[in-house]
Amino acid sequence: MVFSLNSTPQIVFGSGAYQQTGEKVKELGCKKVLVVHGKFIKKSGIADKVVDTLIKEGIEVVRFEEVEPDPPDVIVERGAEFAKEQNVDGIIGIGGGSAQDTAKAINVLLGNPSPITRYLDKSIKMNPGKKLILLPTTAGTGSEANSVSVITDTKRGVKGGVIGPPCLPDLAIIDPDFTLGLSPSSTATTGMDTFAHGVESMTTILANPMGDMLAEKVISLVYKYLPIAVKDGSNIEARTNLSFAATLAGMAFENTVLHLGHAIAHSMGAICHIPHGIACAIATPYVIEYISDVVPDKIKVMGRAMGLDLEGKSPEEAGKTVADAVRALAKEIGIPTMKDLGIEKETLEKVAELALNDDTFGFIPKETPKETILEILHRAYDEA
C-alpha cells in the first residue's frame, strides 16, 4: 500500500487554551487581523474573550460578523472584500463549521482572484492566503484540522468543497470550554457529524492505517461520550473528549476522504435545508449496512470500538448490528427523523440525483447507482 499523509496545523488543546490566542497569533507575525464569527458567538461573549487576548498583545482587530449557515458564496465575497480594504495579515475564525468555512474561504480570496465558486473546480491551483487561525465552538466538523471549506454556490443551489493550502489553518486552538454553552440538540447533531467522519474515513477507497487509527478512536469516543454530553452539557470530561474526537476526525479525513454518507448529507442539506449533523445521523447506519459486504474487517473494528459483540456474525449481520446501535444512539440523543422534519418523500429523488455529483461520491468502496441511493433514502424514511 502506498499512501500520503498530509500535515496538520499547530494545535493548542485544552480547557482555557483560548487564553493563548493573542500570544500565538503574535508569534505568527500578525499585526492586524480579521475576526470572523456569527451573531450567536458575539452574544455568548466568546468572541470578545478571544479579541481581548489579541488586543492585549497589541494586535489590531477588525470584525466580520455576517456568518450564515451553509456559507453562501455572496457572504464569502463580502468578507474578502472587507478584509482587503482593511489590509489584514491574518484571518481568525471563531465558531462552528460555518464560521470556520467562511474564514477559510475568505482566506482563499486574499491570495487568489474571485469568485470563490471557481475553486469548486479542484483542478484550479491556489496561491497561499494570509495566516489562518481557527477556534471551534462546536465538536463536530473537524474543520480546524483540515484543508476543506464547504460553501454554497447560491446560483446553482449546491454545496461544494474548496480544498487547498489557504484552507489549512496555521494554528488551531481547541478549547472545550467553548462548547459548554451548546444546546442538547446542537451537541447531538455536531456529534453525529463527527461520528460519520470516523465511519467514512475508515471505509473510503483511500483508507489507510493512519486514518483507520484515528477513526477508530473517534468512533469510540463519540459513542461513549455523546449521550453524556447531551444529557449533561456541563460535563467537562465529555465535552473535552468530544472536542478531541472532532479534531481527530478532521485529521482522519484530511488523510483519507469521506464518501456516501456525506454525499447524501450534503444533498439533503441543499434540498431539504436540514442541519448537516441530522442528515449524517440519518444516512450513517444505512451506509454501514450497505458497505458491510465489502469492508467486513472495518465493520468489526467499528463494532469493537463501540463495545459490541460481533463474534460469529456474517458481514451482513455484523453490519446490521453496528447500524442498529447507531440508530439507537441517534434515537437516545433526540435526532429527529425525516418525517419529524416534515420532509416529503417525493423530494428524495432530487437528493439521490444531487448526491451523484457530490465531491465525495467517487470514493464509495463499491459501485453505487442512483437507484441504490434512492433505496437507502426510502428505507431511512420508511423505517424511522
The N- to C-terminal Cα distance equals 40 Å
- What is the mean pLDDT? 96
The CATH architecture of the largest domain: Up-down Bundle
Fraction in helix? 40-55%
- Tally of separate helices: 14
Strand segment tally: 8
What's this entry about, in short?
By secondary structure, the protein is α/β, with parallel strands linked by helices.
Write up this protein:
- The protein is of the alpha/beta class and 384 residues long.
- It has two domains: 10-179, Rossmann fold; 184-383, Dehydroquinate synthase-like - alpha domain (Dehydroquinate synthase-like, alpha domain, Up-down Bundle), CATH 1.20.1090.
- The protein has 14 helices and eight strands.
- Strands 1-8-5-4-2-3 form a six-stranded parallel beta sheet, sandwiched between helices.
- α9 (260-272) packs across α13 (348-355).
- It is globular and about 65 Å long.
- The N and C termini lie far apart (40 Å).
Highlighted features:
384 residues; single chain; Rossmann fold; 6-stranded parallel sheet; Dehydroquinate synthase-like, alpha domain; 2 domains; alpha/beta
